[in-house]
Structures
1.
Amino acid sequence: MTEKRSGTAQKAARVGKATSTQAPAKKTAAKTSKVGKARNPASVRTSGKAKAPTLLSGGNPQIVKGDGDGPVQTYISAMPGWKHQVGLQLDALIVRAVPGVRKAVKWNSPFYGVEGQGWFLSLHCFNRYIKVAFFRGTSLLPLPPGASKNEEVRYLDIYETAELDQKLMVSWIKQASKLPGWVP
């Protein structure tokens, strides 16, 4: 048996409006991401358990961008295997060499800089090595070994079997921090 509706209720049903005999449709405040999936703000995780970061195809941890030491430490803690210890070592060297260093995670990589001068160094994990990028690397002495498509950038690739020359690394860090940095 079908329910009879008043003329107002029938018209409202045709145009999608609620009447006093119908429950109003709920509006959601969900946002749509770039891939078209709805994000519900109420579904944000509030429990004490943090989700382990995903490793991207090249072995680099996928970390939410953010300013400060927190996101950088999250990145370092997510570095897989031997890279974790090297990440801790590099971070400690940078902090000792440049008091008050500015830190952030951008483009799934930790960045180090000086306030008002830009970024002088970043790290990035690959499957077999860690790439340290010196944004004004061509001004460093001695010149870091890895060339770049960008004429000012130089790289140092750190492999598991390589011994990190801490004295040279600190020298490069100090030199790089005194140069005008990269500003995206």
2.
Amino acid sequence: MRTGKPCGACHLNPAGGGDLSAEGAAFRNEMLSGGGTPQPGGGLRMLRFFAGLVHLVTAVLWFGTILYVHLLLKPAYAAKGIPRGELLVGWISIVLMAVTGVILTVFRISSLEVLFHTRFGVLLTAKIALYLVMVSTAVLVTFVVGPRLKKRQGIFDGRKKDLTAGELSSFDGKDGRPTYFVYQGTIYDATGSKLWKGGRHVGKHQAGFDLTEALPMAPHGEEKIAPLPIVGRFIETGEAGKKPFHEKGFYFMTYLNLFLVFCILLIISLWRWW
């Protein structure tokens, strides 16, 4: 951090760590004798360790949730608005990442010169910028896009049997409404099922959606769906090309976050192995 030199300047192993070269030993002695930034004491070292642990665990949970939603549940899971639980977890993660990130940066970066003129500092700056972009998308989804998505509800009409995606969205099992979902073009009624209380199945799948792609990932097969009452047919209306601007923005930001996660993981890989 102080010299901007590669690890091989002080370590016998070019990748860093292990035995020191003569130059590395001299630099270490200079630091220990007070010629450099003093190393943190026991209490500060514990703080740094705890902050790093919380930072890492939060990152794993946050990134893991993003990957899970995109690769398994699909973004359509939240197309009617982000559930309150997911929003709470997301914002707690954002705050923890910010607090622990600041603590770790203070321990690691001694000046702006280190931040902008060393390899570690430049990568850290890029990582912070990506984090801020993710926070910006979270703000937009929470306070702008999310409320608009929740308002996009189909007109509830219990007499209709064949439903479009917009009409199906009203049968979400909430506030006394029936619990409908689609599987392979057929609309099923899960209102009386104990596994669909409140319109959600095992806490993951929300009623009012086409869940055809979700079944292959489930621990059961079609035998759990077949006994449910059939309501009617699912009408494909080509709505995918006519989504309102805020819904298109929602899908763009979800896939942008997925891309940013891979970028941050790339930076971490460059820190450790490049």
